[in-house]
Amino acid sequence: MTSIESVSRSDLEQRRQMLRTHRRLKLLHAAWQTLAVSGILGGLVWATTRPIWVLRESSQVTIEGNQLLATQAIKSLLPITYPQSLLQIQPEAIAKTLESQPTIADANVTRELFPPSLRVQVTERIPVAIAYIRPPQTVTTDAQANMGFVDAQGVWIPFQTYAAQSTNLKLPQLKVIGPLERYQSYWASVYQGVSRSPVKITEIDCQDPTNIILKTELGVVHLGAYTSRLNQQLQVLDQMRQLPQQLNSNQIAYIDLSNPDAPTVQMNQVETVKPDTPHQ
């Protein structure tokens, strides 16, 4: 019994010693891992805060995607004070600042370490129509405040903003008249239909919410209030291309398409004519 007890105590002591050694090795390994990670992080922090990782001037900023807006104008919008460490620059905050501009729909900002620089990609808002709050002929003072642009989604772009930021802006051929809030909700649909219409349309008057008025190559067209039948109205207008050959255009007051199933032509002599339209 004494021999067995002696062996058992010896085995237990060896096992305890092995466990203590194993525990020390684990602690040592963990400590080395911590030191290694801390060293790497410290090295990164040290490297990125060295003078070489600093934006010293705007020439280190690259602007991409701009066609209408001047590169220097976009750079002037960046909330950056030179010199500034790349580590302190917040790309998302810069992107939000740019997107708050009515001329920029989307922005993406990335930092580049080799060489230290900043890349800014922008998607511009493209003006598709000159927008007048009131008819331009009725405005005698501060005409620029009455004038702006709208993009395909109906976002208002002040005239002064694009004039200040753009060096390559070509004025759109299409005009829209009326306060933005009266047509913004359906502008995307109206613009899509008008831009695809085979009949040239140069002006959309949205001053009266009960009657949208178009200026077209066939004359003035009354659509009535906006409805989902807009595309049908424009299709009927296309079918009336022969109207100038049937009637004297000087005698036509307007074409009434408020009911596309029964289009009419209002004559200046208060005579209403039902034009011949080709059957589909």
From TrEMBL:
One of its GO terms (cellular component) is plasma membrane. Keywords: Cell cycle, Cell division, Cell membrane, Membrane, Transmembrane, Transmembrane helix. InterPro entries: Cell_div_FtsQ/DivIB_C, FtsQ_DivIB, POTRA, POTRA_FtsQ_type. It is found in: Membrane. It comes from the Bacteria. Residues 56-125 form the POTRA domain. The chain crosses the membrane at residues 25-47. GO terms for biological process: cell division. This is Cell division protein FtsQ.
